[in-house]
Known about the structure:
Keywords: Repeat, WD repeat. It is a single chain. The chain is mainly beta and 267 residues long. It folds into 2 domains: 5-120, YVTN repeat-like/Quinoprotein amine dehydrogenase (Methylamine Dehydrogenase, Chain H); 135-216, no CATH class. Helix content is 12%, strand content 34%. The protein has 3 helices and 19 strands. The strands form 7 sheets. Strands 1-2-3-4 form a 4-stranded antiparallel sheet, with no helix packed on it. Strands 5-6-7-8 form a 4-stranded antiparallel sheet, with no helix packed on it. It has a 3-stranded antiparallel sheet with strand order 11-12-13, with no helix packed on it.
Amino acid sequence: MKPKVTMIAWNQNDNYVVTAVNNHLLKVWNSCTGQLLHDLVGHADEVFVLETHPFDSRIMLSAGHDGNIFIWDITKGTKTKHYFNMIEGQGHGAVFDCKFSPDGQHFACTDSHGHLLIFGFGCSRPYEKIPDQMFFHTDYRPLIRDSNNYVLDEQTQQAPHLMPPPFLVDVDGNPHPTKYQRLVPGRENCADEHLIPQLGYVATSDGEVVEQVIGQQTVDQDEQGLEPSILDGMIRQLQLQQDQRTGADQESASSGPQNGEGTPRRG
């Protein structure tokens, strides 16, 4: 097999360069001399994630499609910590991305099954206030294009960025209780009755009919006592200005040079 580099990363102080190769090895190089210092062995599939620690120049994180997450000491060429992303009943989940927190005390990873994995020191109590499964009910809604080729949500015929804040649902599309709906930006101060989505029955690909969120139970902002969105107002204002410019351009084009005259004379 011809070796190919799939990912490359410098460490925090740029003294070392780490390359991931498609033979599943990680190689540590001296960035000044180009000398190969270490071969890091542990991955069983290609690696597409290399993340350096924000302030510790010795530490590098790697993760890949084999479900393995490693913390390496690249100065010694040794493995510090290892985690295997095994999912019960489904095998392992490929790890697609990882990032350190600014203080270097935590890092978060996302996998091929839609999981967010959070690693760090201390207890996990702050994360226990939210459900294990959280999706926006609009995540997989179909889109269409209008006559101007603009993208619209198929069900509501609205531009996605102008739609009301979405609801939080589980993997089967069932909405979470109202206390979780307030975690969505824009719904923090809504009354309970405004946090109840409209439910309907939707047929899945295998013919099963399940109850899912099909729309949003909303009322006018004036009735909710909410101030209009500044962003929405700016978007509408920009659209109005664009429409006015388009109309002016069309008028000037229709009243252009006539009677066989060429380009207008300069003033």
